[in-house]
Amino acid sequence: MSTKEPILSVRDMRVEFKIKKQNALPWQKPDILRAVKGVSFDLAAGETLGIVGESGCGKSTLARAIIRMIPSQGGEVFWQGRDLMKMNEKELLGIRKEIQMIFQDPLASLNPRLTAGQIIAEPLKTHYPNTSKDEVKKRVRELMEKVGLSGRMINRYPHEFSGGQCQRIGIARALITNPKMIICDEPVSALDVSVQAQVVNLLMDLQKELGLSLLFIAHDLSVVKHISNRIMVLEFGDIAELGEAHEVINNPQSPYTRELINAVPIPDPIAERKRIAERRALEASA
Amino acid sequence: MMVDVQKMEQFAENLAAQEEVQGRSLFADARRRFFKNKAAVVSLIVLCCVFAFSMFGHMIAVWPNDEMDWGILGQIAELGAPSIENGHYFGVDELGRDLFARVVQGTQISLMVGIVGALIAVIVGTLYGAIAGYTGGKVDNVMMRIVDILQSIPYMFVLILLLVVFGRSIFMLFVGIGLISWLDMSRIARGQTLTLKNKEFVEAAMATGVKPLTIILRHIVPNLLGVVVVYSTLLVPQMILTESFISFLGLGVQEPNTSWGALIAEGAGTMQYGTLWQLAFPMFFFIISLFSFFFIGDGLRDALDPKDQ
């Protein structure tokens, strides 16, 4: 656990979805899917918490519930001591500029009808509507340079950029309001490996420079290990393990984490064969 | 990062010589594809000619549209045929009025009805559908059930009742057509909105705290435009057809005003007297305009088809 005062603390977060049965009559009770079952954690300023787990285990749902994009069925979220869940829309808007988000699909997260400049400027225009046009443009150019894009590309449209560049636009958009925390929802899963490294390193550089806290969601353990201070392993909406990154990876306590780590392929045929044999043995014994 | 550092240096060098690169929007791409489609481009030119005809035709006309040629009246079948000498380029109608001037007048009104009807459909229908789709839940349910109810009313019946009760005027015709034209559009817009709503860029805007109305106007509606534009080019001829049908029945545009439908109705009524030009000229403009609109709609659909992008 970090000794610093947490910037974000989540207590007993629960999210449920109602699922209508097929051919259900209107008065029949819908099935309840418990996507997140009471998750608690703290995030310190400047720290990165990696959230891993197989697909459908509630990683993204948890992140969206924290910033109230989807309703939660219980739990508290303290952002610098204030409970987000009890805020009204107006107060929440003030918080939204401090917590920004980066999305999985770089192209889909950018409106195809807007130029890169307009996309990056949107949060600034939302939270500071009185900023002058020149000021906005200056900020946008500054941020584009910061994330490694040329300011000359300000008038280009998303489809004219590569996947990695689109993700950089997404990062610039997240940074323009000077947030304190960024939620990264599988930001590199849709990119190819060489670009993944660039984007992850960019995020780490920015974090160091700006003192950001990151909530880094991914299913790729190697990426998470690289960027995170601590790792939280989610298993069907529950915390399977939460601890220092190297501890979790090198000395996993829960069987679920062990299985997750064992599932990672090794780029060496001999070691890979050994790994598969070990997995089979593990499955046979289970 | 190494690659990018090099790239940035390169760009920095270029920066002195060149300023911002102008991006090519999706619409610019679509425009380029549209102009490659010959049928659509020819239709666009034809339609522009029809527009020019309706705007400036009265300057060419020798006769005004409301004056009878007493010299011809009574012998229309013999003397009233199209001729350049007496200035009746399209001949005269059965009351001895210059058909050229009448067709100009009819074209103006028919195009106006078509375009106003389609505009109402585009503005009201798109916003209504986008709001219903984006809000979702109960609001969506109520809004779309209202559309269902309105759509289940036989509109021709309502239109005829409206014109009978409130008097036959062009304004009433606009009201009647405006009332029904947006229903289909709102459904199309809603359907598209439902798929757009779950896109990550809308989610990104929500996460930033952009207001719902701004999201609809900035993120949803511009992305609907492709579908809306195509549908509205098909809606214009539909509106013209509706108006022509009403006028053909004698309920639409009233004398001394006229429209394609009214002119065709008059021409059809006098067919047996051997004055076929009275039917042929309004019919010609009617058909080429409708064909043009359909071809343009086709061209736009191909140009804006997301599968090609």
From TrEMBL, chain A:
PROSITE patterns: ABC_TRANSPORTER_1, ABC_TRANSPORTER_2. The keyword Nucleotide-binding applies. It is a peripheral membrane protein. SMART domains: AAA. Keywords: ATP-binding, Nucleotide-binding, Transport. It comes from the Bacteria. The keyword Transmembrane does not apply. It is found in: Cell inner membrane. GO terms for molecular function: ATP binding. Its main location: membrane. Residues 19-261 form the ABC transporter domain. SUPFAM superfamilies: P-loop containing nucleoside triphosphate hydrolases. Gene3D superfamilies: P-loop containing nucleotide triphosphate hydrolases. Belongs to the ABC transporter superfamily. This is Peptide ABC transporter ATP-binding protein.
From TrEMBL, chain B:
It is a multi-pass membrane protein. InterPro entries: BP-dependent_transpt_permease, MetI-like, MetI-like_sf, OppC_N. Residues 107-297 form the ABC transmembrane type-1 domain. It comes from the Bacteria. The keyword Transport applies. It is found in: Cell inner membrane; Cell membrane. The chain crosses the membrane at residues 41-63, 109-134, 220-241, 276-297. Keywords: Cell inner membrane, Cell membrane, Membrane, Peptide transport, Protein transport, Transmembrane, Transmembrane helix, Transport. Belongs to the binding-protein-dependent transport system permease family. OppBC subfamily. This is Oligopeptide transport system permease protein OppC. It comes from Pseudovibrio japonicus. The lineage of its organism: Bacteria, Pseudomonadati, Pseudomonadota, Alphaproteobacteria, Hyphomicrobiales.
